[in-house]
Amino acid sequence: MKALLIFCEGNHDIVFVRRSLGAVAGLEFINDPIDKLPSPFGALQTPRHPNAPGREVSLIVQHYSTRALGGERLSQAAHAPAPAFICALRDASRDLLVLLVRCGTDSAKAKIVELLSNLSATLSHSYGKFAVTEYAVAFIFDADKSIADREAKFRAAYADTFSNLDLLSHGGWIRHGEVPVGLFIFADDHGKGTLEDVIAPEVSKRWPGAWHAADELLTNHCPPHLPAHTKQAERLKAQMTIAGQPYFPGDPLSVVLDRDTNGHGLPREAFQGSTSQALVQFLQAAPFTPLSPPPLPSPAANKLPASTTTPPHPRATSRAAANAAPTGSTARTSRHPSPTTSPRSASAPCPRADRVVITSSANPTRGESTAAASLSAEHAATSTSARPWSSPGRLSARRRAASGVCAASRYVGGSSATRSSRAGQHAAARPNRSAGSNRRAASSPRTPHSRRAKAVAIAAFSAW
Fold first, then answer.
1. Cα 422 to Cα 406: distance, rounded to the nearest angstrom
2. What gap in Å lies between CA 199 and CA 201, rounded to an integer?
3. Other CB atoms closer than 10 Å to residue 104's CB: what's the count?
4. Cα 23 from chain centroid?
5. Are the CB atoms for 194 and 144 separated by under 8 Å?
6. Neighbouring residues of 166: CB distance < 8 A, sequence distance ≥ 6
7. Which uninterrupted H or E stretch holds 449?
8. E strands in 331-381
9. Which of 352, 208, 30 is nearest to 200 (CA)?
């Protein structure tokens, strides 16, 4: 998503910009809480839990939390100082978030620069983390004396903030690094004046009777030394405010221009004139540039040389030596040789592949047969390498039988000497077990499940 921050002098300018974007381009007003705005302006939400509190504080909340209210008067603390976020709009067709910010005059430049610096640092270090990945900045001012004079004042105020300001003019854009910066100036047909010169004809057209009555009131009752008599812009403000009082009693000019309750306010057509069209075209022409993500490592850097082979796991070597058949016993190998291309055979072996390898005892007793030898470690490793460890229930009947052999062989009856010899083999196959556990394994008596385990072993060998 892209974000466009529009810095306006006052509330009248914000109302005009907002209604022009809605009437000309169809942008929607966002009435959500601050935390629900797209991050980082809103809190970073969890996709699976959109209604849960955000994981990170929004940039707007951080901006307001830095106020030192102890040093302000009550009248100052009741209103947010400039720059103040006033409203947000959404352009779904362009995936664009528009934020209108009241900045006052050029005296708020330090706070504006601080806000933009925090935004740039937040996005540059977290590419892809937030909903907004790129942004642009637009400044909208009144011409007052002339457009050229206002351009010169803006360049002088922000010369040490933005680069290439000498190339920036009314209705144009420049790039400060990767951030587009634009400037738009309200003026009349003669290249001077303020926004009031633009909107006053629409007010007089909407309320012609109230407009002429307000003009007569100011002419006959305004003292000659007051701004409403000496300055054209102030007179137009007073006249528009008075003309709207029958419909919006007691409301300021920003409300008179904004509301259209029951069709008594300014219609949409009042914000579709030439100035509104030029303003929307200027804002839509912002040359957004996506922030560059950090370079990914080269795939070749993660590859081993062709002559390099993966060394065997240290535990595999020790277990292979421990599982070697002792003298005087005949160890059987698997009837199914394991393939040499097993995905686990080239690296670390299966954790349980060579856990127990049973060889026939030199003195078989109690029905123990020399043929009762289990699978070799190699076959067990390859037979279990194809399945994930999280799915033990997917074993075939033959593999379940083989696993039953390994489990039941611990309980197969025999003499105490045979059990002691077998326990010693288990201890050698597990060098990491303590001596105490080996003594307990060697001296453990037969369990009540010996006959059942023996039957499982015989059935397993029959099935194999």
1. 13
2. 6
3. 17
4. 32
5. yes
6. 155
7. none
8. none
9. 208
- Identify the CA nearest to 12 among candidates 272, 253, 183: 253
Contact 230, 224 (CB under 8 A): yes
List, for residues 107-119, the tens digit of each pLDDT value. 789 999 999 998 9
Cα 267 to the center of its chain, rounded Å = 40
Q: What is the dihedral of CA 302, 308, 310, 314, to 10 degrees?
A: -120
pLDDT at 9 over 50: yes
pLDDT tens string 178-222: 899 999 999 998 999 999 999 999 999 999 999 999 999 999 999
pLDDT at 460: 67
Question: Hey, what are 432's tokens?
Answer: 């990491």
Q: Which residues contact 338 (CB under 8 A, 6 or more apart)?
A: 345, 378, 379, 381, 382, 383
Could you tell me which residues come within 8 angstroms of residue 197 by beta carbon, excluding any fewer than 6 positions away?
Answer: 186, 187, 188, 232, 233, 236
- Give the pair of three-digit tokens for residue 157: 């105020």
Residue that the structure tokens 């169809």 belong to: 26
> In Å, what is the CA distance from 298 to each residue of 301, 303, 378, 439?
5, 10, 36, 54
Q: Which two tokens stand for residue 109?
A: 């430049």
pLDDT at residue 462 greater than cutoff 80: no
